[in-house]
Amino acid sequence: MWVWYYMSQATLGSGPYRNSSLFSGYYLDERVADLDAWDCDAEAEEAFEQIRDLWNREGTLLPPTRKTN
Fold first, then answer.
1. Residues 6 or more apart in contact with residue 25 via CB below 8 angstroms
2. pLDDT tens, the chain, 69 aa long
3. 0.70 cut: is pTM over it?
């Protein structure tokens, strides 16, 4: 059985990522944004719009969600 979890704003960290010590904070804060592959705002916005449109059309077809402990 699938159980979907949603993160509230209260559970999100203060930054755009949660560093689990896999990368240095400097690299994530300063270097990643300079990478050419990171410059994908237009593509990300288009993908988000497609996902939002799909959700608006078919989201009611999904079963209700519930939280389990």
1. 19
2. 444 445 554 555 667 777 777 778 888 888 888 888 878 888 889 999 999 999 999 988 878 777 665
3. no
SS3 for the chain, per residue?
CCCCCCCCHHHCCCCCCCCCCCCCHHHHHHHHHHCHHHCCHHHHHHHHHHHHHHHHHHHHHCCCCCCCC
Quick check: 4 and 65 in contact, CB under 8 A? Answer: yes
Beta-carbon contacts of residue 67 (< 8 Å; ≥ 6 apart): 3, 5
